[in-house]
Amino acid sequence: MKLCMVAASLAGGGAERALLDTAELLAAQRHHVTVLTFEGEMSDAYTVPSCLSRVALGIPGYSGNRLRGFLNNFRRIARLRAEVRRLKPDVVVSYLTRTNILCLLALLGMGIPVVATEHNITTLNDAPMQALWRTLRRFLYRQMAQVVVVSKGLAEQYAWLGADKVSVIYNFLPSRRGLEPEAFKFLSSDVRYIVSMGRLEPEKGFDRLIKAFHLVEKDCIGWKVLIVGEGSLRAELTRLIASLGLEKRIELPGRVDNPRTLFRHCNLFVLSSHSEGFGMVLVEAMSAGLPAVSFDCDFGPREIIDPDVSGMLIPPDDIQALAEAMRKLVNDDVLRARLARGALGSASRFAAEEILKRWEALLQRVACAETLPGKACSPKQAPKRS
Q: Is residue 62 part of a domain?
């Protein structure tokens, strides 16, 4: 099957990682996969595997004003339509709301099915998303071949589309990610680590983790906090850490290439997000044998953590409860070990094999739905396995 997978950029974030992981998995099954981004390769935070084709349109996402934004979106639509016409894929899979909308507008009338993916509730309700985008989503998503969401809770947000239009496919745990050796110069052998990871953006709630640790740091002797990632809040979080006198207890080491390698050097994982569509970093941490503490977001973590078996779920926004959970775990080696064993078992539910089956079945279904009535699906849409 020929597939085109589209994102605004590969500049970082869980959805972009999921795109590359899924694309690589599909390519391993003899599907021809092209990864297309609106932005150029200079913005890439991830390396595109050699088994994938790559097209970068080089149209930046930052517009500066509404007129330039309109013109940029018009250029994206025109260029995307031309590239898809050249590539002739069986299915286009797009990632995140605005890209989904632009994809469908670009491909109207071409007879190529578009599968939209949604990864987080913030793409539904964030204030900057103008009424025009919300209206376009409400109208155009009905024209999608399928809308794929990464959790059952997120699927409920799309009930207005009807059950036959929405599919839940979890992100999966790549078998090779993080297995490469890497030296982390910011680690000390005589320190235990609480680790958190994600974009340094408001929705990840790292300020809440910092404040929670401040409440119990005197009871966490020999422990430090690592907040791994990059984003627009680096300076603000650095100031908060300094204002609480935690410069020697909390570090912001930036991005790392191999998260699971780092997790193996840590002792406890904390997810402090306000919202998550799924929470792949949580699965990765648990797969490395880390007990986990997470705020109980509307959805995502509650589908991953089995409370008191593989981790702890904390009431949303309860910083004091998060602090108490950290205090309890850092001071109870037996409890951490028990939850770590449970975490390993829980993470195994997200192995790649089952997720691949669901993706292939969905893509085959929507590709064949575009064939003429009475005509069999073409051989390229049902490739032989090696």
A: yes
Q: What confidence tens digit (pLDDT) does each residue in 10-21 have?
A: 987 778 988 999
Same domain? For 144 and 278 the reply is no
Structural domains counted in the chain: 2
**pLDDT confidence tier of residue 312, bands split at 50, 70 and 90:** very high
Q: Are residues 225 and 300 in the same domain?
A: yes
What does the block give as tokens for 242? Answer: 């300094």
On average, the pLDDT of the chain sits at 88
Residue 159 domain-assigned (yes or no)? yes
Q: For 354-359, which contacts have Cβ atoms below 8 Å and span 24 or more sequence positions?
A: 354/172, 355/25, 355/169, 355/170, 355/171, 355/172, 356/25, 356/26, 356/29, 356/172, 358/167, 358/169, 359/22, 359/25, 359/26, 359/169
Lowest mean pLDDT among 6-10, 154-158, 240-244, 363-367: 154-158
Nearest to 116 by CA among 105, 132, 125, 131: 105
Helix, coil or strand: residue 272 = coil
Closest CA to 284 of 302, 304, 303: 304
Residue 314 inside a domain? The answer is yes
Q: Which residues pair with 196 in a beta bridge?
A: 227
The CATH number given to whatever domain includes residue 10 is 3.40.50.2000
Helices 206-216, 234-243: inter-axial angle, 10-degree rounding: 10
pLDDT digit string, tens, across residues 24-70: 999 999 999 999 999 999 888 888 999 999 999 998 766 666 777 77
Q: Are residues 324 and 217 in the same domain?
A: yes
